[in-house]
């Protein structure tokens, strides 16, 4: 087990330090773990809410409204589950030394992009190119 990297509370990754040094990796690791815990807590609350709302509602309008709410909750929960999976993948990339580098070009992903979207796997340019290609193929 490697030693814990010291990280001041006010630390923010900066462009003038070596890219993906130990402090930056620790910063993103902590950010990802905190985000994952937040999502798992929300997921547990959603489950509790769904179990409580699973009661028999005699009024048809109320039942329809409750079913709509339930479907929305389940969709949200599915999105959160996929996000947790992406967070786990980002944490694995930190462990393997691949974090912060574009999976298409191998170029470093900007610190601003990673700070805003720590699960990013592509540079902004590669992501835009990927989305343009996807749109073209979707229209076929």
Automatic annotation (TrEMBL):
One GO term (biological process): regulation of gene expression
Record flagged with keyword Zinc: yes
UniProt keyword annotations, A-Z: Cytoplasm, Metal-binding, Zinc, Zinc-finger
Gene3D superfamilies: DksA, coiled-coil domain
GO CC term (a single one): cytoplasm
UniProt-listed Pfam families: DksA_N (PF21157), zf-dskA_traR (PF01258)
Primary subcellular site in the record, as a coarse category: cytoplasm
Subcellular location: Cytoplasm
Listed GO MF terms: zinc ion binding
Keyword field contains Plastid: no
Zinc finger annotations (dksA C4-type) as residue ranges: 102-126
Residue ranges constituting the DnaK suppressor protein DksA N-terminal domain according to the UniProt record: 24-94
Superkingdom of source: Bacteria
InterPro entries attached to this UniProt entry: DksA_N, DksA_RNA_pol-bd, DnaK_N, Znf_DskA_TraR, Znf_DskA_TraR_CS
Domain Zinc finger DksA/TraR C4-type, residue spans: 97-132
Function recorded in the entry: Transcription factor that acts by binding directly to the RNA polymerase (RNAP). Required for negative regulation of rRNA expression and positive regulation of several amino acid biosynthesis promoters.
Subunit structure and binding partners: Interacts directly with the RNA polymerase.
Family (UniProt): Belongs to the DksA family.
NCBIfam families attached to this UniProt entry: dksA
Protein name stated in the entry: RNA polymerase-binding transcription factor DksA
